Amino acid sequence: VSRLIATIPGIGPITATAIAATVPDATAFRSGRDFAAWLGLTPRQNSSGGKDRLGSITKRGDTYLRHLLFIGARNVIRYPKARATAGAAWIEGLVARRSRTVAAVALANKMARIAWAMMTTGEAYRSAREATA
Fold it and tell me: What does each C-alpha distance from 60 to 38, 57, 69, 102 come to in angstroms?
């Protein structure tokens, strides 16, 4: 499983091994969002009176895994070669609208969701280019 997860841009052997060791059964989560929420990578929700307000990330769950995913996401944003394989247009648009730190958290969230999908289906990583072709 860890070799499969390590094919995601921004996730190396250490992060992949940590995910595989910490999450023995990915089917325990109903969706990738539930997995990302378990890691503390989803925004805090403060809704009242019909108004939806999203705050900063919840920071619940495994601090070490969240930190590893954030560092991997930050490196994907920093280096163009890694960015080319990880949906460059989405990342560049996000960095243009928000700070690099917020973009790195959003990318870490996306990487966690992709890792969950790969662990539940057993399929290899496909970049955005491969998926549309």
Answer: 7, 8, 14, 17
CB neighbour list of residue 13: distance below 8 Å, 6 or more residues apart: 2, 6
The pTM of the full predicted model, rounded to 2 decimals, is 0.84
**Is 104 a domain residue?**
yes
Q: Is residue 48 part of a domain?
A: yes
| CA atoms within 13 A of residue 39's CA, in its CB half-sphere | 30
* pLDDT tens, residue by residue, 3-32: 999 999 899 999 999 999 999 899 999 999
Rounded percentage of the chain residues whose pLDDT exceeds 90: 47
3-state secondary structure of 40: coil
Distance separating alpha carbons of residues 62 and 82, to the nearest angstrom = 25
Token pair in block for residue 69 = 């995913």
- Is residue 131 domain-resident? no
